[in-house]
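It is worth pausing here to work through a concrete case rather than discussing structure prediction in the abstract. The textbook approach is simple: state the sequence, then state the predicted structure, then interpret. We follow exactly that order.
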Amino acid sequence: MGSMLVRVLGFPATLIHGDPLVLDRWLWLKKRLPSPTNGENLIDVGCGTGAFTIGAALRGYKSLGLSWDDRNQSVARERALICKAPSAKFEVFDVRKLDQRKDLFSKFDIALSFENIEHILDDRKLMKDIAKCLKPGGRLLLTTPNDKYRPISAHDAGPFSPIEDGRHVRKGYNEERLIELCNDAGLDFQSCSFCSGFLSQKLAYLLRLVASIHPLFAWAVILPFRILPPIFDPLISKLNLWPQYSICLEANKPSPANNDALARTGVPDLDD
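Step two, the predicted structure:
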């Protein structure tokens, strides 16, 4: 179904064939993904079916999507071909072993990791490994569930898995924890924001509810309403106290120039 829609609608179909929260994440990312000037490299750690990897390639990046799932990577390659995004490449790889891929170290200008870290027990290691893949001055854009979200459906309420079996191993994150992870990984924390508000979450609930009848029927039921969250959720978020589903991190890997500037100001190097 998803790839058939991509054949008809092109890249936008990758954002609307499933969870309505995917579009929110793309809109957040698109505002923060600079237009490349010289074929910059981007890595998508835990890329799913490749929507953001493909979207980045269409913007001019040489993008690499990593996922352990053979089926997802097969779908991603097919969609990249349909979308005419030849610079989007995909590898089947367990991102928990990213430290073993020395060929990827210091190679990427941008690293994405969307709704992935909450599936990984050793989140400190994952952040350090992503940081190793960034060039000095490179940028990390990451989203993960906000630990204050209200459960969309029963499985969001926990209990969370004590093992890495594809489910969430923790509810989510707050800004303090993300800052701590950045510090441990040697990344400069820039900011946290949020995405996926009340309407998106209610659409996701409706999709999951009706999918018990048939997934295609569920997709058709919510399709006319998908336009509403991008328009109205920003206003609704200001008017009510409903927590947004994802917390969104921006961080940079320090460049030698930044380290030299710190040295000139007498600020101690915390790595010494």
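Step three, interpretation. Residues 2-151+166-197+245-255 form a domain with the Rossmann fold fold (CATH 3.40.50.150). The radius of gyration is 19 Å.
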